[in-house]
Amino acid sequence: MDTLLQQYLNELKSNLYQMASCVEEAILLSTKALAKRDLSQVSRVFELENEINEFHKKIDHDCFKLLARQSPVASDLRLIIVATKMSVDLERMGDLACSISYSLEKYLSFSPVTMASEIPKMSDVTRLMIRKGLDALMQNDKKMALEVLTMDQTVDDYRDRLVLEIKSALKLSNTTLEAHLELFTIVRNLERLGDHATNIAEEVIFLISGEDVRQEMMNVKNTRHKGEGHE
After folding, report:
1. How far apart are CA 122 and CA 91, in angstroms?
2. Which of 133, 153, 205, 229 has the highest Cβ tally under 10 A?
3. d(Cα 45, Cα 55) in Å, to the nearest integer?
4. What is the maximum span of the chain, computed from C-alpha positions, in angstroms?
5. How large is the angle between the packed helices 142-170 and 119-139, nearest 10 degrees?
6. CA atoms of 123 and 139, how far apart (whole Å)
7. In this structure, what DSSP letter does residue 118 have?
8. Mean pLDDT of the region 11-23
9. For the residues 175-185, what does the mean pLDDT come to?
């Protein structure tokens, strides 16, 4: 492989890793804000979103430049294609972290809800999925990427349990409707974060093996939801 091309590709992977680290930090800060009922660090989430957006633009620019000037083939071409897709997922994850922060600001204006203490555990799983997906990319580790796909079930299980608790609580006359609705939004956004992390893992698998597992995973998820009675 051309030494200069390898250098560019290594830099591309490094930028993806740094972008993912910003996403992880944004999710962590939101989680801490919920657990401690303290919004003092939430402004950092929006700063991180700006950094994530800058990485997104840089990665897109670098990918187009590589395609135009280096004429990559085979696995090198796959990496560039995968990088553009990962960058989109990570950019959307940054948006979701901001959405969670907005919901937190509203939620914390109400009295605390007991089941909210479970949400940081769900957040921990989504952050681990992101980390494992990017580690799989850097280490060229298909097995690690496959582990991310199995972790999506854990995120879905948290969603199902928390949504059920929210619905049950809303039947009580003394329940704060607005607080529970904000928690519902947070849970749904964490689920979406897990879905984006799954997308990244699927792209890593494609990069390493050329195997496209997206439709297979979609079928598994749809079958699981039908079996559990989801719409």
Report:
1. 20
2. 133
3. 15
4. 68
5. 160
6. 24
7. G
8. 97
9. 90
